[in-house]
Structure formats: C-alpha cells, structure tokens
Design brief:
Helix 2 crosses helix 5, helix 6 packs antiparallel against helix 7 and helix 7 packs antiparallel against helix 9. The N and C termini lie far apart (106 Å). The protein contains 14 helices and two strands; from the N terminus they run H-H-H-H-H-H-H-H-E-E-H-H-H-H-H-H. By secondary structure, the chain is mainly alpha-helical. A two-stranded antiparallel sheet has the order 1-2.
Length: 308
C-alpha cells in the first residue's frame, strides 16, 4: 500500500500566498515563517487554537521589543485572515493578540539652505565623471525621493529616452512610475554621456555590478563635509525625507506623496505631516469657509448685583 500523502502545512501555504499574490520580499517571508512557527511551538496547532490560547502568547512575548511584538501579531492576524478566506476557520481569534503601541521615530530633516549648499557644491564639481555621477545621484534622491536600494540598483532599461519617468521596482517587487524633474533629467543625461560603457546599471561599480548602498552613503557624507555641513545629518534616507517634507510644504496631496514614495500604507506617509503643522493650520484658516469669518464679540450681559 502506498504511504499516505503528507498533509499540507497551512503556514507554508500562507507564505506561498504572500509571495504569489502580494509579492512579499524574501526577508518578510522568512520573518513571518519564524514568527508563525514559534507561535505554534508555544500553543500548538494554530488552525484549531482558540482565543484563550492566542491570548496566552502575550506572556510568552512579554520581553520582546514593541516592534518585534507588532510584527509577530501582524503575522498571526494575516494568517487567520488567510484561514478564513480559505474556509479553514469560521472565526477569527486574532482579536486576542497583544497590540503594542509603536511610536514611529520622526525623520531627521534638512532645511532648504542645507539642501541648497549640497546642490551648489555638486553642481560646481559636475564637470568630472565622478562629479556628474554625484549630481545625478543627489538629484534622484532629493528630486524623485528614491530609496537608496532603488537608486543604486537602477537598470538602464528603467530610464526611457523620451518620457520624464523612471520605472522603479520597490519593496516587495511592486513597480511604480516616478517623475524626473527637468534638472534631474539634465543631470542624468550628463552622467550617462560620461558613464563607463557596458553593463546594465545606471550607476555601475568599478568592481563589477552596481554601486553599493554603503558607497552611496559614503559619497553623500563626503559631499556634506565639503559643503560645510554636519555629515552626521546627511544620508540617502534623510534626502528622501527632505523630498517628502518639502513637497508637502509646497502643497502636495498626501495620497500623491504616498504613490511617489511607494508606501503600501498611507500611515507610513502620514509621519511627514508633523513637520508642516504651521502650514496646515494656516491652510485651514485660509481655506475653510469659517476660517476668515470675523467672530462676533460676545454680547454684554448685565449681571445682577450680588446679594449679601
């Protein structure tokens, strides 16, 4: 008699769904797999676990950092949503999971003057090949808001000849079109004319492959130092923050900014609203129907004399 086929592991099926339908990154799949299997080791079969068993995970996870606790809870919530979609459970016990409060760190910011100092120096040094590359990198970080990984791994095929857009493959393999400003386009054209021939990357490395994130970080720090800025304040991510913050200051819509940055969740984009509170208050006062309406003074009321 042939041996019975092994039962499918619902965790493996869930991870396969994340990869196929949501384009989850390999690191995400590995982390979720560890989280779900460690939860199974604590409470047994997850498919049949009840709310009391799920609630008991809070004790097992009590020493975890809030970010780790949030990721584990998220993995289980998504897993139980998957089980419900697949008809493997009729209820969802994930409401019993702990919900840690995570405070997102506020992004470090560069002012307009500091950005101007970086660009002034980069433009003055752009006559050489390395200088032209630095200016193109700077323009795409601040002018288009690219992530460091998206920038250094940008293939030549992503740069169309006639359209002012880049086709970017971001986190989870999600693609988006990113507009390129006229000045960024000019800097990119200048660099491509001086770029070493061969290879498939816009920013190739002399050692083969493309420029590394570490090298990009070093180049920016060196530029900041030469521009008279504190190099500790400057990084690829800080320039991406500046792109987002300064767009909001200019009146950009938050949903548009979410698309440009490639954020899957609008909550990630909302962190930038804190930096522009004064403009938002002024916007309400100037645009709301009651914002400029003069208030009537409170009517005077004759109060009766106090009686002793």
């Amino acid at each position: 008699m042939a041996p019975a086929a092994a039962a499918h592991d619902p965790i493996d099926e869930f991870l396969a769904m994340l990869a196929a339908e949501r384009g989850a990154a390999a690191n995400t799949l590995a982390a979720y797999g560890r989280d779900l299997r460690s939860a199974r080791a604590e409470i047994g079969d997850l498919v049949s676990a009840d709310s009391d068993a799920i609630a008991s995970l809070a004790e097992a996870w009590r020493d975890l950092a809030p970010s780790s606790l949030a990721r584990k809870s998220s993995a289980l919530r998504q897993f139980y949503g998957f089980l419900a979609d697949e008809g493997l459970r009729s209820d969802d016990p994930s409401a019993a999971l702990p919900r840690p409060r995570i405070r997102r760190p506020l992004p470090r910011l560069l002012g307009h003057g500091e950005i101007a100092a970086l660009f002034t120096l980069a433009e003055n040094e752009a006559a050489t090949g390395e200088g032209a590359r630095m200016l193109a990198l700077l323009e795409l970080l601040y002018g288009s808001g690219l992530r460091a990984t998206e920038l250094v791994s940008l293939p030549l095929a992503a740069v169309p000849r006639d359209a002012p857009f880049l086709m970017i493959t971001g986190k989870g393999g999600q693609q988006r079109m990113v507009p390129v400003s006229a000045r960024a386009g000019t800097a990119l054209v200048r660099w491509l004319a001086l770029r070493p021939k061969g290879g498939r990357w816009v920013f190739p490395s002399p050692r083969g492959g493309h420029l590394t994130r570490v090298r990009l970080f070093q180049l920016l720090r060196d530029l900041a130092l030469r521009a008279g800025l504190d190099p500790e304040k400057v990084s690829p991510h800080v320039l991406r923050h500046a792109f987002a913050t300064h767009l909001l200051e200019g009146g950009a819509d938050l949903r548009v900014l979410q698309t440009l940055l490639g954020h899957a969740d609008i909550a990630t984009t909302q962190i930038y609203t804190h930096v522009d509170a004064a403009r938002l208050v002024a916007l309400v006062n100037s645009r709301h129907p009651l914002g400029n309406k003069p208030q009537n003074p409170a009517p005077e009321v004759d109060l009766p004399a106090s009686q002793s």
